[in-house]
Amino acid sequence: MILVLPLFMGSQKALWCSDVGRAILAARLEAALRVLGVEQVVAVTDDPEALEGIWPTEDGRIRRIVRDVDSAREVSRFLPLGTRTALEAVQEMTGRPDAPVMVADFRCPFVSGDDMAAALREYEASGRSAMVTVTAVRDNPCQLEGYYTIADAGVVNLFESGGRGEAVLEEAGLLERLSSMWAGRFVTRPFPFDWAAKGVAAEGDGSGNALLYRRSPVTDRTVAYLPYEGNGDDSDDPVCLWLYESEQQARLVVSSEAVLQQETPSRFPTGTELVGACVRKGGDSIPFRLFRLPDGRCCLHAGNHMGNARLHLVPVGDCAVRDGGSGVVEGFMEGGRFFQFDCADWTDRAGRTGGADAFAFWFLNEAGEQGGYDLRLEYPGEGVLWRTEKGSGRKLTMTTGEHISGRQFFPDVYAPLSCIGILPACSYETYDSELAQGTCFGWVLPSERALRIATGFDMLVFRSMSEGDNCG
Fold first, then answer.
1. Chain centroid to CA 81: how far?
2. Is 401 exposed, middle or buried (0-12, 13-18, 19+ CB in 10 A)?
């Protein structure tokens, strides 16, 4: 096992170059060298001067790598800053992308070498591919609520599969009227749409408005749906057309040029199929695309980086939730752009992708302490460890149904920490999503040793907890 210490201090260099800070750094290096099961310790830093005088040059098991960090690419919320840079250095050093690596946060002064050795033993016994440090929460989330701002929202419409798209157009008598940029498989499944409410009369009145485009805004700030007559009309090259399916249903016909001008991401395996898209008017006309992977799972791909926004994905259509499944999928985008999920939770008789006609989605950012918010949700865990009783608003345990009236009834909840993490060197982008999906092994660190020094105040807390400023 390789143990990595990302040592990127940034604006806190003065804090860590103080006498106490340097003593902590020296103790972290010594603790790393004492971990049983670790063959090599690699310290990766952009400031080698910060290690002068405390670097254990006499031990050949430790290696220092100097490398600048690109903060924009360091997107994990549960690994220390600089981990991605450090893991890339390890891959170059070993030539093994899948090499398991222990990542230790130098800002956690109370995690000993014995702690790291115990975490390594339990990780190896777990059979999991990744490990995260967890500790019991100070404030149980059954008492809390979440406040969020909406970063984005929309609908991903699913396409008819195979040659069904062309068949739909042909049945409507429209295939010959459309140029090659419209003809093809990019016709969505039907979705609920009240044409009369949009000012479009029933198709049977002889108007022949079976294919329309949307103009917005017009003078009275309403959306107008107008007949599409092909090239030369005032449609301003629409990204998609609306197909009149029935009085209460519509389809989208998406421009092949708009879809195909975006290449399939190289990370997808051979056999990956485009099955849906979110279509909008403007420069980023298709901001989200849905792919089906060869193993049957689906992956939502974002054209723009979504950062650490939390994704909520809900199926739309005549589908049923599989026994034990959930009607909502939640999680974070891998690398800010990819979200894989299992479509098997939704089934229908036709066996279609996810058993849905579309997926509604929204991305949520946690609201700041002083900022406004768009919505309030029960804190994550609702419906898993506890539930809210309708009418009274009381919180009840899921196991016994007892009213959570005091701390003795609190469910056991643990929060992830960056103290110690273990993962394959090439799996940085998937680490957060594996944690969100519950596939990581959680190693429990007692709360009294879970201090992470992120501010000057944390350093004061450390000094007050240490006997005589003993940093060892």
1. 18
2. exposed
pLDDT of 320 above 90: no
pLDDT bin (cut points 50, 70, 90) of residue 358 is: confident
CA atoms within 13 A on the CB side of 248: 0
Q: Amino acid identity, residue 293? A: L
Q: Let me know: does 432 contact 332? Beta carbons within 8 Å.
A: yes
CB 462 within 8 A of CB 451: yes
Cis, peptide link before residue 287, omega less than 30° from 0 = no
Are 35 and 117 spatial neighbours (Cβ–Cβ below 8 Å)?
Answer: yes
**HSE, side-chain direction, 13 A CA sphere, residue 52:** 6
Residue 229, pLDDT > 70, answer: yes
pLDDT value, residue 125: 94
The beta-strand segments (E) located in 159-210 are: 191-192
Quote the pLDDT of residue 219.
Answer: 56
Residue 396, CB-side half-sphere exposure with 13 Å CA sphere: 13
Burial class (CB in 10 A: 0-12, 13-18, 19+), 425: buried
* Cα-Cα-Cα-Cα dihedral sign, residues 132, 137, 143, 149: negative
CATH topology of domain 2-137+414-469: Spore Coat Polysaccharide Biosynthesis Protein SpsA; Chain A (3.90.550)
Task: Judge whether 172 and 243 are in contact, CB under 8 Å.
Answer: yes
What are the pLDDT digits (tens) for 129-139?
A: 999 999 988 88
Distance CA 35, CA 14 (A): 29
Q: Is the pLDDT of residue 407 over 60?
A: yes
**Ranges of each domain in the chain:** 2-137+414-469, 157-257, 273-377, 379-409
pLDDT tens by residue, 186-204 = 899 888 888 888 888 765 4
Here the tokens at position 343 are 């479509």
421 vs 138: which has the higher pLDDT: 421
If 0-12 CB within 10 Å is exposed, 13-18 middle and 19+ buried, where does residue 310 land? Answer: buried
Greatest C-alpha distance within the chain: 90
Distance, CA of 48 to chain centre = 34
Cβ–Cβ < 8 Å for 87, 425: yes
Cβ atoms of 124 and 459 within 8 Å: the answer is no
Would you say 46 and 68 are in contact if contact means Cβ atoms under 8 Å apart? yes
Alpha-carbon span 385 to 143, nearest angstrom: 12
CATH architecture for residues 273-377: Sandwich (2.60)
Cα 389 off chain centre by: 30
